[in-house]
From TrEMBL:
One of its GO terms (molecular function) is DNA binding. The keyword Ribosomal protein does not apply. InterPro entries: DNA_methylase_N4/N6 (IPR002941), DNA_methylase_N6_adenine_CS (IPR002052), SAM-dependent_MTases_sf (IPR029063). Gene3D superfamilies: Vaccinia Virus protein VP39. It comes from Noviherbaspirillum sedimenti. This is Site-specific DNA-methyltransferase. Keywords: Methyltransferase, Transferase.
Length: 816
């Protein structure tokens, strides 16, 4: 419809124009099933730096690009222009403008010939490895160009497009789109749909993944659009908390944004290690070596009369410290003579001298003993019996599930030694709540840390949110190719470099961003008499003032003035560190004299001790608590045996008034447990930089009249270099009369003069490192000969007028 309206605007008969416009308005009232939006008018792109000549289509540099004029004549720096398309005035109206205020315009569907102009580079790694690429350009045309080297080859596309909040955060045809724009949503959807269609062609159709971040303003529209454009893919949405305090917006405070993952049919999401996307690893306690539990029941139902069938003897051999057999329950009217009990039998005697019971029945205990899940502890002098230890149901279940493995088995006692499976693999969840994803601390502040206070960018992503998003799908692809065509502040490249440095990968990242200046800077620069296209204006743009400096500084580890970047990255890995345990005496009372309510009052004064865990046992020691309390020092020896299996305990309290006893126990605890080995985040100084390379290009456009054989080869040479993997130092263009190009260190060759075919073949045969051969020819026979000559190489034909290969901006259904 929008294109029809564009044509209607060109009708010079006002009555006819009005009549047709009314009929079109009626047609627009009819909707179709699915996502319905008005496909807005084509986008226009300004072509700066090209000489304005008679017949060119132009617009004002600082105006609406949809108001298009045709240059009729140029004289004395003034251009006489005739209105061709515009929202105001009548087609055919004429006006004169200073030439320096105008810019050549190309619209969607009008063929243009792009070129990549090298701007800068940073070389800080092995030149033979893939170079990253930054392209300063309108991303629609950049995507069309990228189809030539990368169609169907990209493993992951990560984009953070404009959120269309109405806060003048993006432009359509050089005009800000805000809440006052009645076409706000349709413009955004049109803008996105065109780019997503190209993105789909870039993605590996089998295993590629597209990740799009968005907030609530367009999340539902985007979801429908993605389903429409990727009908064969699977889509999931992750909720990412980016501001834990929330942002008040008149109703609920928004704390999150969303990442929509679009998985092509055979895309793989590798399982995550424990440190990936867990809530700050608060659940690390689940991944320590398991602890044996007391077989003696404590707490409720722990008296003999509560469970008579669980009062039975366990026969032991003190010499070998083994369990010999399991007896039967002793009738309730009988009781063992505690005065004659010897050390060959273990009974469930409680710490206060009364009779208790075991946790399991005799048949169950026999089964556990056969499996090696029961073992003999120490002899308890206070209770005059042995301590029996067993593996509880939770540990048994984790053994069955594979979360715990049996490391060894004692040859004498049959008791097993256990260990949690290192780095247990789990699926990544759809809710990400991590402090590292905070956009303020690890986005805005992090960026200022790199660029200094002068480096401003609205709402940069947390580097760790981006790192985790791309790692979720390429962590098992060390050579993945990634593209971000809304590169903004360059967070994606920074995140990919960090991921590579952490796991030794060689992932390659292609960034595309425009060079728009902010609204505030635009007003300031305009007031100074500056215009887009001038160096004084362009150096304030996003790409040149933020994306490129950040990328360059983070690779080098220093700014242009030589100052090192401060601070550290969090790599995502964990490293061990010794941490002393806190061992303290509670010397105001003797713990064994306290009742259970009194113990609970004492426990309430201690950190992280739930009162429901406190009972009449001589000590408190639990798998789920980092705190242990010795209430009765008379049972210290048995407690120490138990404590020796509890490496997770970091806070230890001894409730006694006997200072010398506490001093002795503290020495024994330190010798027994030593310092606790804790895991902490591995850090990498920003000043270390990254051993990698980056090429910075600007997308320019060629004059069709200059496209002749042997000319403008420099314009497409970077694309050939990229197609061959962006490996080796980017070569300089050869002399225009050179018959071929065979650059050292680059895995490609180009034959420009077909008549030198045989000589070219001999030179290529001496290069074992080549992967691509390009030949400028109209002869398919020559191409087939080369493909037969080098079946292992990619042989690509470039036509005689080879720049026709790079003609872009055609209709969406055409091919390059």
């Amino acid at each position: 419809m929008a294109r029809i309206e564009e044509k209607i605007a060109e009708i010079t008969d006002s009555a006819l124009r009005l009549s047709i416009a009314e009929e079109v308005a009626n047609l627009k009232k009819h909707t179709r099933f699915g996502l319905v939006f008005e496909e807005h008018q084509p986008e226009f792109v300004p072509v700066y730096g090209k000489k304005i000549k008679r017949g060119e289509r132009v617009a004002k540099k600082t105006g609406d690009l949809t108001v298009i004029w045709r240059v009729v004549a140029i004289k004395n720096g003034q251009a006489l222009c005739e209105l061709e398309i515009g929202s105001q005035g009548i087609a055919g109206d004429r006006e004169t403008f200073p030439v320096e205020q105008l810019v050549i315009i190309r619209s969607m569907g009008e063929p243009i010939y792009p070129s990549l102009t090298p701007v800068d580079s940073v070389i800080n790694g092995d030149p033979s490895l893939p170079h990253h690429v930054l392209i300063e350009a309108d991303n629609y045309h950049a995507l069309q160009l990228l189809l030539f080297p990368y169609e169907r080859k990209v493993d992951c596309i990560y984009i953070d497009p404009p959120y269309n909040t109405g806060a003048r955060d993006w432009k359509y045809n050089n005009d800000y789109v805000d809440d006052n724009d009645s076409w706000q949503h349709s413009k955004w959807l049109t803008f996105m749909s065109k780019r997503l269609r190209l993105a789909k062609r870039l993605l590996n159709p089998d295993s590629g993944v597209l990740i799009v971040t968005i907030d609530e303003h367009e999340v539902h529209h985007l979801g429908c659009l993605l389903e429409q454009e990727f009908p064969d893919a699977t889509m999931q949405m992750a909720t990412i908390v980016i501001n834990q305090k929330g942002v008040a917006q008149g109703g609920l405070s928004r704390a999150e944004e969303y990442a929509l993952f679009v998985f092509m049919p055979n895309a793989n999401v590798p399982p995550a290690a424990d440190d990936l996307l867990s809530p700050d690893r608060a659940d690390n306690k689940r991944f320590r070596n398991p602890r044996w539990e007391w077989l003696l029941r404590g707490g409720t139902n722990s008296r003999r009369e509560d469970r008579p069938g669980l009062f039975f003897p366990v026969h032991v051999d003190p010499a070998t410290r083994t369990i010999v057999s399991i007896g039967e329950p002793l009738p309730l009217d009988q009781r063992p003579d505690q005065g004659t009990v010897d050390n060959t039998v273990a009974w469930p005697f409680r710490t206060d001298g009364t009779l208790g019971n075991w946790r399991v029945s005799p048949p169950t205990l026999r089964t556990l003993l056969a499996k090696g899940y029961v073992k003999l502890g120490g002899y308890d002098e206070a209770r005059k019996t042995w301590t029996i230890l067993y593996l509880g149901q939770k540990a048994q279940r984790q053994i069955d599930e594979g979360a715990i493995c049996i490391v060894s088995r004692d040859a004498t006692t049959n008791a097993v030694a256990l260990e949690y499976v290192a780095g247990e693999q789990r699926s990544i969840k759809t809710v990400w709540h991590r402090a590292l994803h905070d956009a303020g601390t690890y986005g805005s502040s992090f960026l200022r840390n790199i660029l200094g206070e002068g480096g401003r960018f609205a709402f940069p992503k947390s580097i760790y949110a981006v790192r985790d998003a791309v790692a979720a799908v390429v962590r098992d692809k060390p050579n993945a190719l990634l593209v971000d065509f809304f590169a903004g502040s360059g967070t994606t490249l920074n995140a990919v470099n960090l991921l590579n440095a952490t796991d030794g990968g060689q992932r390659q990242c292609i960034l595309v961003t425009n060079n728009e200046v902010s609204e505030e800077e635009s007003r300031s620069l305009t007031a100074q008499g500056l215009q887009p296209g001038q160096d004084e204006w362009d150096r304030h743009g996003i790409c040149r003032s933020v994306t490129w400096p950040r990328s360059k500084f983070t690779i080098r580890g220093e700014r242009d003035d030589g100052t090192s970047l401060p601070g550290d990255y969090i790599t995502g890995k964990q490293v061990p560190r010794d941490k002393p345990r806190n061992i303290r005496q509670l010397g105001f009372v003797e713990g064994r004299h306290l009742t259970v309510p009194q113990r609970k009052q004492v426990a309430a004064l201690l950190p992280n001790v739930p009162q429901n865990k406190v009972d009449d046992a001589p000590w408190l020691l639990n798998d789920d608590m980092a705190v242990s309390i010795l209430w009765d020092i008379q049972h210290a020896s048995t407690w120490l045996e138990e404590l020796g299996e509890a490496d997770h305990v970091t806070e230890i309290f001894v409730v006694t008034m006997e200072n010398r006893v506490f001093t002795r126990l503290k020495t024994e605890i330190i010798e027994l447990l030593g310092a606790q080995v804790v895991s902490e985040d591995e850090k990498r100084p920003l000043a270390n930089g990254f051993a990698t390379n980056l090429e910075y290009f600007r997308l320019d456009f060629l004059d069709p009249q200059e496209i002749q054989m042997g000319r403008q080869f420099a314009a497409v040479l970077p694309v050939l270099w990229m197609m061959a993997g962006s490996r080796g130092a980017r070569p300089a263009p050869p002399d225009e009369h050179a018959p071929w190009l065979l650059p050292d260190g680059c895995p490609f060759a180009v034959l420009m003069q077909e008549t030198r075919f045989k000589e070219f073949v001999r030179h290529v045969d001496h290069r074992a490192d080549l992967t691509h051969v390009f030949i400028v020819t109209n002869s398919h026979d020559t191409v087939h000969k080369l493909r037969r000559e080098w079946p292992e190489l990619h042989v690509v034909q470039l036509y005689k007028d080879y720049l026709e290969n790079f003609r872009i901006n055609l209709s969406e259904n055409s091919t390059l």
